[in-house]
């Protein structure tokens, strides 16, 4: 069970909820963050919302989803390799699909070095499959925020590039597990973006706890969500679509959270096991 300041905060919020008082909670998707590939944005010692620089090979399943505009590629979101030719990401990461070509960088640690790193590669996205019931409505909890990308060629699997196993419905609960997030998202809300892949560690939060917290602001947390918390760490813009991994399995896809990326409330992820059958249509 969770303890300490978070339990105290939860208790206070329950009191407010029972008294019908409502907080002005502002939540948002963690929108795309256009980071030029091959240009230095921040020095290597930078940290993402109190995370740490990742060692190369720490997350061989992560991809940098990129849009190509005027022959320049930009990191916009993360994603996870779930088969040699399929990437799982967030539906809200694809507002520019159809307007600009998209590609994924695999085997990346540094966006500055990019595909010049040993084992790294850039692969074109051939098709994008957005969940047909995805809704971009905050009060509803941005339901069904998942998408599958189809690659033009298979990823070059190696120690740097690997497929990750997805959590399934029969894996049981990951509540209160230690989970790991990786991404190139902003270091703070509206702040700078790193070039080096970042790590953050979170604890799984029960559905009831997460739902209670966000209900104080009339924000809906659904059964198809998974929540993770470890104040003051937080996902932020540019982490969207990236992997939350617990017990070595892909449990969540970064979806939404507090607009200020403060980490005061749990981050909310699309729960991979909830979309098991939908994903199988494309893999």
Automatic annotation (TrEMBL):
Keyword Hydrolase appears in the UniProt entry: yes
Peptidase S1 domain location: 48-283
UniProt keyword annotations, A-Z: Disulfide bond, Hydrolase, Protease, Serine protease, Signal
Presence of keyword Protease: yes
PROSITE patterns: TRYPSIN_DOM, TRYPSIN_HIS, TRYPSIN_SER
Residues in the signal sequence: 1-21
Family: Belongs to the peptidase S1 family.
Name this polypeptide is given: Trypsin alpha-3
The organism's taxonomic lineage, starting at the top: Eukaryota, Metazoa, Spiralia, Lophotrochozoa, Mollusca
């Amino acid at each position: 069970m969770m303890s300490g300041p978070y339990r105290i905060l939860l208790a206070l919020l329950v009191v407010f909820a029972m008294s019908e008082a409502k907080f002005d909670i502002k939540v948002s998707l963690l929108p795309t963050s256009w980071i030029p590939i091959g240009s230095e944005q921040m020095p290597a010692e930078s940290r993402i919302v109190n995370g740490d620089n990742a060692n190369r090979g720490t997350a061989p399943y992560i991809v940098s989803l990129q849009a190509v505009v005027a022959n320049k590629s930009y990191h916009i979101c993360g994603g996870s390799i779930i088969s040699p030719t399929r990437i799982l990401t967030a539906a809200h990461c694809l507002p520019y699909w159809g307007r600009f070509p998209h590609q994924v960088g695999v085997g990346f640690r540094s966006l500055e070095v990019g595909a010049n790193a040993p084992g790294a590669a850039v692969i074109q996205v051939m098709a994008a499959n957005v969940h047909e019931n995805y809704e971009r409505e905050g009060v509803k909890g941005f339901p069904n925020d998942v998408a599958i990308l189809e690659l033009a060629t298979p990823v070059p699997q190696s120690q740097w590039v690997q497929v990750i196993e997805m959590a399934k419905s029969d894996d049981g609960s990951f509540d209160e597990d230690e989970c790991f997030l990786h991404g190139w998202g902003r270091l703070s809300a509206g702040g700078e973006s790193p070039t080096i892949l970042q790590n953050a560690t979170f604890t799984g939060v029960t559905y009831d706890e997460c739902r209670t917290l966000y209900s104080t602001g009339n924000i809906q947390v659904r059964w198809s969500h998974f929540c993770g918390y470890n104040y003051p760490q937080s996902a932020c813009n540019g982490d969207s679509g990236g992997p939350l991994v617990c017990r070595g399995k892909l449990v969540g896809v970064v979806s939404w959270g507090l607009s200020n990326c403060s980490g005061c409330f749990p981050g909310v992820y699309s729960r991979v096991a909830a979309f098991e059958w939908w994903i199988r249509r494309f893999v």
